[in-house]
Write a structure and sequence with these properties.
The protein is an alpha+beta fold. It is built from 18 helices and 43 strands.
């Protein structure tokens, strides 16, 4: 079949970024941890003017971008799959009409790959025209090869391959690759099927994936196919990690293996520019060299105003440019970007704002990209302290906090701190944060009255407005209103007494010693540590009582399939309290139902017995007092608070009052439908939740009473002062272990904990 050109969809929308930042300040001097790079990749953003373009499923080959579309044939009354190809050279889009047998009706493409000669290899589900004895229409998996014009070269039924394999896990195809000779490698769970250039089956390569899984497969720069397997318990005892292995087609076996392959999120192996492979994660694009078994950074996505977590495909052009497709759901932005390696000295500068973060995350990346694209003066860079590559999580987390603290006391201090996981009270006591109140007072786009006042009060420490979070979740404890008599808060001693008064019931369901220590310390760190003076009180009777109480709980929870659900156990009187995350107005309904309409949201225990509802904020950023560009840092925070949310509240309750009011209005909106009698009646269904033991709940439209209850919790909530990955908890957990095992007395371990934490506080105060 001849290639059919569609009407030129493509007038193309281009945005070439000409003012890209260097990693330096406006005066040309490096700032913070940002080092000026010799080379950067200047982006040219390309939008394909095709509403059916799916950037998530794109593949890049040569100078073209390929994607599948579903088209409807009005005359024939059926749909079929086709390909479209967008040329990066002439910026035109064409449809490749595939010569499917029978017109391709209802064919569902599972996997496809583009060959070195622009051939298209496809594995598709094809419907069987005749139903089985039960009247059900089945489908078969079929292998196809089409040439660059869409003419079918061959077709092979794959059903026999799947049916003959006794391993049920091999019933689905995981990956498809073609080498430079046009030979195909079809990867299932634990086997790779081999097909020659004519589409004939040539055998298989078995794999041992009992202790891991296939993460990706693809071609290197030399046209050979490799597979990337993640082993979480390798046979040689070296621990978890990625193993890159060459596939030997002639020998039908696994070939040479290579070490130190990067921990990345792309599941397709890509040919490199100068080295063998391109690999990328949410922040960085690398090249991997087989000879040296090392990776080398090519670029940081954010330097080119790209959120790396949204990149769905990447490739290298013959001229050395990088091309990537991205689908950014949060910013409602998608497209293709061409990246050209350019001397930094040839590109206009912006002033760099450095954000320090423990974890990073898609929210931060997305906000930074949006800000960078919209600002002609500032550019956000991000330093992530928590490494993805570690042998021990606790040590890696401890190192992350140590490195952040070191930067905060040096000339490398970031301009902004992401407060997720950070001990805010500790840093506030050390004067780390700039007061944002004057910036808010002078803002031309925000007034204090535009924001939820309780959030501003919650993030005010020693009269310093540390942060204005964008969204808030609430974490709290809920119990029986009959037992707790409507209490608005309680002390640790009162919670322990409550447990003692109900010896036949568990305080919590499925909780461990580690979780209980977190609950007890979440608002009580300040009773044992004074960060201002450095005084510690972990050898007191109060802390020893905590250790004795925590010791009642198991080290690990023993999960059993037949164990009743938490709601059932609560209603049977077997469990007293539940931990609750409240992130929208529906989420309060289940805990109310658990306690049969008489729930008391009492909160975590505190020293003074006041409310212990914890704010878990997203996009909560603080400007550092040592920042050299505080106005730029405030501009970033301001941009987050004023951004359009398009009605999406993915991360909790907005702090901007107008957005919160819109969320309340949407939650309380009564929907109507026409019943069988033609009457308009209110729709009460809003989804449901169910458990294996039969307990279930159907949501209803939010009531004013529920809104008032949630707003009361927001009003009383405070940020968590103890970060869950903190060295304080690590020390307590480590040193309390001998007491839990009966090897040391409570007095001994309390003394050791006191000594270690006092040293830690002294070093970090």
């Amino acid at each position: 079949m001849k290639k059919k050109l569609v009407q030129r969809l493509a007038a193309l929308s281009l945005a070439v970024l000409t003012a890209l930042p260097l990693a330096g300040c406006g005066n040309g001097e490096p700032s913070g941890n940002v080092t000026q790079k010799e080379w950067i990749y200047v982006p040219e953003f390309v939008t394909i003017e095709d509403e059916e373009a799916s950037y998530y499923g794109m593949q890049l080959a040569g100078d073209s971008v390929y994607y599948t579309v579903w088209e409807w044939d009005e005359a024939a009354g059926r749909g079929y799959s086709n390909f479209r190809r967008f040329s990066l050279t002439d910026r035109q889009t064409e449809t490749i009409s595939l010569a499917w047998p029978d017109g391709g009706a209802a064919v569902n493409i599972n996997e496809f790959v583009i060959g070195s000669d622009d051939s298209i290899y496809i594995v598709a589900y094809e419907p069987v025209p005749v139903p089985d004895s039960d009247g059900i229409y089945d489908s078969v998996q079929q292998l196809y090869k089409f040439d660059a014009q869409g003419n079918m070269v061959y077709s092979e039924n794959l059903s026999k391959r799947f049916e003959e394999d006794s391993d049920e896990s091999n019933a689905y195809l995981r990956s498809l690759a073609a080498d430079s000779q046009g030979r195909l490698y079809l990867c299932s769970e634990s086997v790779i099927w081999l097909y020659d250039a004519e589409g004939k089956y040539q055998g298989e390569i078995p794999m041992d994936t009992a202790s891991g899984w296939v993460n990706g497969m693809g071609c290197s720069k030399d046209g050979k196919v490799y597979i990337n397997i993640y082993n979480y318990d390798s046979a040689d005892g070296t621990g978890s990690g990625y193993q890159l292995t060459e596939l030997d087609f002639e020998g039908k076996k696994l070939g040479n293996s290579y070490e130190n392959f990067p921990n990345t999120n792309n599941n397709v192996l890509l040919p490199g520019v100068e080295k063998d492979f391109l690999v990328y994660d949410g922040s960085t694009l690398y090249e991997y060299d087989l000879a040296t078994q090392t990776k080398e950074e090519v670029l940081e996505w954010l330097d080119s105003d790209i959120d790396g977590s949204t990149v769905s495909a990447c490739s290298a052009l013959d001229d050395g440019r990088i091309v990537a497709a991205y689908q950014d759901w949060q910013n409602d932005d998608s497209g293709v970007v061409l990246l050209t390696k350019t001397k930094s000295s040839e590109v206009a500068q912006k002033e760099t704002i450095l954000i320090g973060t423990i974890y990073g995350g898609s929210d931060l990346q997305s906000a930074a990209v949006k800000f960078n694209k919209g600002s002609d003066k500032y550019h956000i860079s991000i330093k992530r302290y928590m490494s993805d590559e570690y042998d021990d999580y606790a040590n890696a987390m401890s190192d992350a906090f140590t490195n952040m603290n070191n930067d905060l006391t040096s000339r490398n201090c970031p301009d902004i701190i992401d407060l997720v996981g950070v001990n805010i009270a500790q840093m506030a006591a050390k004067g780390v944060f700039e007061d944002l109140a004057p910036y808010l007072d002078k803002s031309t786009v925000l007034n204090r009255s535009d924001l939820v006042e309780s959030a501003l009060k919650a993030y005010t420490y020693q009269d310093v407005l540390v942060s204005i979070p964008n969204n808030m979740n609430i974490s709290t404890l809920v119990g029986s209103g009959k037992d707790l008599e409507g209490k608005q808060g309680w002390t640790v001693e009162e919670m322990i007494a409550y447990a003692d008064a109900h010896p036949d019931a568990e305080l919590f369901d499925t909780e461990t010693k580690a979780a209980m220590m977190q609950y007890l310390m979440i608002y009580n760190e300040s009773s044992f540590i004074d960060w201002t003076t450095g005084e510690c009180k972990f050898d007191t009777d109060e802390f020893k009582n905590l250790l004795n109480f925590v010791n009642r709980f198991p080290d690990e929870y023993d999960w059993r399939e037949d164990r009743p659900s938490t709601p059932t156990r609560i209603q049977n009187g077997e469990v007293l309290l539940d931990t609750v995350g409240i992130y929208d107005f529906d989420s309060i309904q289940v805990p109310i139902e658990e306690f049969k309409g008489e729930a008391c949201f009492i909160g975590f225990p505190t020293v003074d017995g006041q409310s212990g509802h914890a704010i878990m904020a997203s996009q909560a950023y603080a400007v550092t007092a040592k920042s050299k560009n505080k106005d730029g840092a405030w501009a970033f925070i301001e941009s987050i608070l004023t951004q359009e949310d398009n009605g999406r509240y993915w991360n909790g309750f907005p702090v901007v009052r107008s957005k919160l009011d819109a969320m309340i209005e949407e939650a309380m909106k009564v929907e109507y439908y026409e019943n069988e009698n033609g009457e308009m009646v209110a729709w009460e269904g809003g989804g449901s939740v169910g458990y294996q033991d039969g307990w279930s709940y159907t949501y209803h439209t939010t009531t004013q009473e529920e809104v008032d209850l949630v707003m009361g919790l927001i009003e009383a909530a405070r940020p968590v002062s103890l970060d869950y990955g903190s060295e304080i908890l690590n020390i307590i957990s480590e040193e309390a272990e001998p007491f839990y095992k009966g090897q040391k007395s409570v007095d001994e371990v309390a003394g050791i904990i006191q000594s270690r934490i006092k040293i830690y506080v002294g070093e970090n105060n």
